[in-house]
Amino acid sequence: MCSAQWTHLANLTRTVHLEPMTFDVLDAVMVIESQTHSNPWQRRQFDDCLNHGHHARVLLADGVLSGYFVAMMGYEEVHLLTLAVTPDHQRRGHARTMLKALAAWSIEQNARSLWLELRVSNARAMHVYQAAGFQKIALRRNYYPTPDGLCEDAQVMCLTLGVCPT
Ligand SMILES: CC(C)(COP(=O)(O)OP(=O)(O)OC[C@H]1O[C@@H](n2cnc3c(N)ncnc32)[C@H](O)[C@@H]1OP(=O)(O)O)[C@@H](O)C(=O)NCCC(=O)NCCS
Known about the structure:
alpha+beta; Aminopeptidase; 7-stranded mixed β-sheet; binds coenzyme A
């Protein structure tokens, strides 16, 4: 086998699994958060989510914490509050894996829909969410601050989960 093929194989992820986000992984989560968001969450926001018992998972790829999401249960609906994948592990299907797991968990909770909002400029994430079945629902005007001190609209998106088994 040539060296290029070995390099390709070395880049493949062998095991991917999700675990509950706990306080002791928040240092690693904060590194990814600061690498991936122009206005990253503060650590206390993750603390608050864990203290409130929100549904928070980290994705481990070959044992390395490579992504995470936090979601909040509402009445018959779930809200995805944040989701990210570390830059050098993007485009390997990790976001898709987390969205599938979140949708399955939401159905187990008897939720009928999964909601999120994101910056209208975030074309990459918009594409990933649309590929997962989310639909554009509405805009929230001037919802997010931008680094230059202005504001940006939020796109509200929804995934209909269908009728849950009784
Ligand atoms: C948006 C974000 C979460 C997407 O994460 P990701 O893990 O790169 O997304 P996925 O890999 O699941 O996306 C699927 C894409 O990967 C490709 N893919 C899936 N499996 C793959 C594999 N094994 N190898 C290579 N590519 C693969 C898919 O073909 C798809 O590509 P396409 O979009 O060109 O069709 C990530 O870019 C990110 O963290 N951005 C910053 C934070 C952010 O914007 N979060 C969302 C708003 S809160």
